[in-house]
């Protein structure tokens, strides 16, 4: 299992981006979380099989219809806590 940290910049807060991300991750069976950052970006940490992570990243780059993704910074990471679900954090 691999894990990725994504920092998404653009029109990504107040447009349902976290809910879109949660649905996409759960559909693919990924674990992790999504949360808004104070600087206007969204942070995502997702873990799962590499093929599912790649499909997820493709979906996140598109984002919801009301949003706009300008940039996605992706780094390898570890999911600190053992979780088997994907959640929205506040």
Characterization of the model:
With 90 residues, the chain is an alpha+beta fold. The chain has a single domain, classed as 2-Layer Sandwich (Alpha-Beta Plaits). Helix content is 28%, strand content 40%. It is globular.
Q: Can you describe this structure in just a few lines?
A:
This protein is an alpha+beta fold and 90 residues long. Helix content is 28%, strand content 40%.
Unreliable runs: none
Q: Please provide the count of β strands.
A: 5
| Order of SSEs | EHEEHEE
Q: Give the terminus-to-terminus CA distance.
A: 26 Å
CATH class: Alpha Beta
* CATH fold-level label: Alpha-Beta Plaits
Radius of gyration: 12 Å
Q: Quickly give the structural class.
A: alpha+beta
Q: Please name the CATH architecture.
A: 2-Layer Sandwich
